[in-house]
Design brief:
512 residues; mainly alpha; Growth Hormone, Chain: A; 3 domains; 20 helices; globular
């Protein structure tokens, strides 16, 4: 690339660089909180608006569908219009959509609000990462900033249920949305005062057919995976969606490879360290998203904790992630980026294995699992540093969009695939035919097999204490079995990182 097409580095004082990092991290904190806070508010929302089962699914799913579909085009627009401008617009859309919940009097209105939140999230997420790449020209200092960014992100996921529980103790379900409004206002003011503007000197040419293909392909992929989790492989719509999505995304990749200045530079994957960093992000989120969901259910439905108490019991995950995120850059400087990232993923895998090897699952074992899994999540700060250390400034938006897409797809794939495995183990260990022999009406078997929550509701209605213990035991077995699968996935991720990232890879130096 010619010199005139390269972005000129920003020259900011150290104080302003780190103040900007806190603004960017706090912006991401709210987005990550919103991924989990609604799960706590959904029961109250359902009691108030009485959505159908399908509408409830759309209230949850529409956010990730829109978010995944728009990450790439929004990142490209940020490169062209300005990354700070796109971030501030995203904060405005997110805050404005949250305020609109006051006008949402039915389920379809809530779905529309969630869709707008997805638009705002897609504008915010990649710009936080790309701006850190631009603001910190020193790779060593950038690695520390990415550690802070990763730590705050992990806190957002853990604090979502806690904040939601506290709000619902005192206010209605709308508070889970309205909490975003003052936070977005503060973020906009801080962003205007502290963040520099940055845009690519040679932005990608706007490609409308490519944008449509990427959006349709990503939405089709995410929707197909989510439908698979609910309906299984026998549903023809699953295959139509996944095959259509694969065709569109393959066409999009070929189109990008043929263009000199594509909407998304997929040639970034020609660098093995970049591929290793993205793969680490995808596989880690694949395993950890399902772990968080299943453990949260186990804490509430098996251990009997309230949503707020369950959120507090999940804090070891955030603590492990926060500590590891902040220590990872220094550890990488001492033992190397490859060893730090692969080691973190290996320890996370060992954490998953703890649940499997214990003869009887207790919270003590789960706590160890959460701490070690959090440490693995914290090591992903090194994955971000590896991705950004080999990415030129003008491609920062592309790299950020790819990394954020890996996180989002890992979350969706993990919950769908590992959730399906957990459901299969639950049904297999439940042995519904035995329950029928013991007096359970055959008409209720499907409900009992569908979920632990359904089984407990039926047991309460029938006064069947044996069913309660049987269903809880089956769910615990499903959590333990899924822990073994998660351990294998994390070990595979550690192995892939070890072979893809060179031994001497130094995140304190910028590759050219």
């Amino acid at each position: 690339m010619s010199t005139q097409n390269k972005e000129r580095p920003l020259e900011l004082s150290k104080v302003r660089r780190w103040a900007a990092t806190m603004v960017l991290s706090a912006s991401l904190l709210v987005i990550m909180m919103d991924l989990s806070i609604l799960n706590v508010a959904l029961p109250d929302l359902a009691a108030d608006l009485k959505p159908t089962a399908n509408q409830q699914l759309w209230i949850i799913d529409i956010y990730s569908l829109i978010l995944a579909g728009l990450l790439v085009p929004m990142s490209a627009l940020a490169d062209r219009w300005g990354r700070r401008l796109m971030l501030l617009l995203g904060l405005g859309v997110f805050g404005g959509a949250s305020l609109l919940i006051l006008l949402a009097g039915d389920s379809m209105s809530v779905i529309a609000v969630r869709a707008l939140l997805g638009v705002g999230g897609a504008m915010i997420m990649p710009t936080t990462l790309s701006l850190i790449r631009i603001i910190f020209t020193d790779p060593a200092e950038r690695a520390k900033a990415l550690g802070v960014w990763a730590a705050v992100s992990s806190l957002g996921i853990a604090f979502g249920p806690i904040v939601g529980g506290l709000l619902l103790d005192h206010f209605s379900w709308q508070a889970a949305f309205l909490i975003n409004v003052p936070l977005m206002v503060l973020a906009i003011i801080a962003g205007l005062l502290l963040l520099p503007e940055s845009r690519s000197a040679n932005p990608p040419l706007w490609d409308m057919p490519g944008s449509v293909m990427s959006v349709a392909g990503m939405i089709g992929l995410v929707w197909g995976i989510k439908r698979f989790a609910k309906e299984g492989w026998t549903d023809p719509l699953v295959w139509i969606s996944l095959i259509g999505a694969a065709a569109l995304l393959a066409w999009f990749v070929v189109r990008c490879l043929r263009r000199s200045n594509p909407l998304l530079d997929v040639r970034l994957f020609s660098r093995a360290p970049f591929t290793g960093g993205v793969l680490a992000a995808f596989l880690s989120m694949f395993a950890m998203a399902a772990l968080l969901l299943l453990v949260a259910q186990w804490l509430q439905l098996v251990e009997g904790h309230s949503p707020l108490q369950a959120g507090i019991h999940l804090l070891p995950l955030a603590a492990g992630a926060m500590i590891a995120s902040l220590l990872a850059p220094a550890l990488a400087a001492r033992i190397g980026a490859r060893a730090t990232l692969a080691g973190g993923l290996f320890f996370a895998g060992a954490g998953f294995l703890v649940m499997y090897v214990f003869p009887e699952l207790t919270y003590g074992a789960v706590l160890v699992t959460l701490m070690l899994a959090g440490a693995g999540a914290g090591s992903l700060a090194i994955a971000s540093a590896i991705i950004m250390s080999g990415t030129p400034p003008e491609k920062a938006g592309n790299a950020a969009a790819i990394e954020e897409s890996a996180y989002d797809l890992g979350n969706v794939f993990g919950i769908a695939m590992l959730g399906s495995i957990a459901s299969w183990i639950y049904r297999d260990h439940l042995k519904a035919e035995t329950l029928v022999d013991q007096g359970l009406p055959s008409s209720l078997v499907a409900t009992v097999e569908d979920s632990l929550g359904g089984a407990l509701a039926i047991a309460q209605e029938l006064g069947a204490n044996d069913l309660v213990e049987h269903a809880r035991s089956a769910f615990t077995d499903s959590l333990v079995g899924t822990g073994l699968v998660g351990a294998i996935i994390m070990m595979l991720a550690a192995t892939a990182v070890f072979f893809l990232i060179p031994k001497g890879h130094d995140i304190t130096k910028q590759e050219h």
